[in-house]
Amino acid sequence: MNIDWILVLEKFILIAVVVFASLGIAMYETWGERKIAAILQDRRGPNRAGPFGLFQPLADGLKLFMKEEIIPNSSNKFLFVLGPSLAMMAAMMTSAVIPWGGTITVFDRQVSLQIADVNIGVLYIFAVVSLGVYGIMIGGWASNNKFSLMAALRAASQAISYELAMGLSLIALLFMSGSLSMRQIVENQMAGDWGGFLGWNFLYQPLGFLIFLVAAFAECNRTPFDLPEAENELNFGYHQEYSSMKLGFYLFAEYINMFISSVIMATLFFGGYDMPFFNEAAHADWGNWLALIGTVALMAKVLFFIFLFMWVRWTIPRFRYDQLMDLGWKKLVPLALANMLITGAVVLWLESK
Predict the structure, then answer these.
(1) What DSSP string runs through 225-241?
(2) 151 near 249, Cβ under 8 Å?
């Protein structure tokens, strides 16, 4: 068997770029979170470390590295370390099937800006997302702390409940696209009129998108669904006993999940790297610049969703736990089922004409 080492090198470089870019974006999401909170509360926010406080994430990261590592004597030490590592790994693995742009040419070789174009990309995302629950559950249980365990149980039941609604909301979209490949879903949207804009799935699945958006807030433990980290009830949540970079891994995983969730929503419902009102096929001679424009368009959509996550956090109060579960099981799941059945009926009717 001959191994294409050039392809291996391409993928290795792309993985490194995606991983470090995700970490960098997660770092500055913390800065953006504090700035947006300050604007909404009529404050200045970070303004001491560097111009406009831009070095604040670096100072926070250095502080986490320098803090003392504490592992409770009564904890399961192996699982205590495994928990945050698994949460971080699951957050990063999701990016493997996301198309970050079109295709670029490097030394007469076509390079796809996607780590792995698997034909079951959507199923891969759900499989990896479910692994993140184990990271939280293992960390909460291994801490040997009743507050941590309670928060981990909350997080697990919340994630399982909203993953169901999230998955059902996507079935209707898959009826329309006819593919589980993330790149194929993007290309189907780009084939629409008005430079692809009229092909965006959001226009045909607004209810499915709304359900997916609410479920994404719950999956990322973001307000108003941050019950696993409800300090007034659980002290500090499932990472109560964690310190230094093990705590940093849990916090980073949350922000990376927010970034990846934004990318997934932009890819599935808003055309991914499609620039609206711009016909990419008519400008194929632009080469690598065309792929760069697509990546910039995707990042612009992602920044909007990240801003939405932060805006909601500092605007809407936290739900009670019974309200959270009631919304998931009694509202979102029935709505997703109804949306799936109606979409299936419409697709069959259109195909029979």
Answers:
(1) S-GGG-HHHHTTGGGTT
(2) no
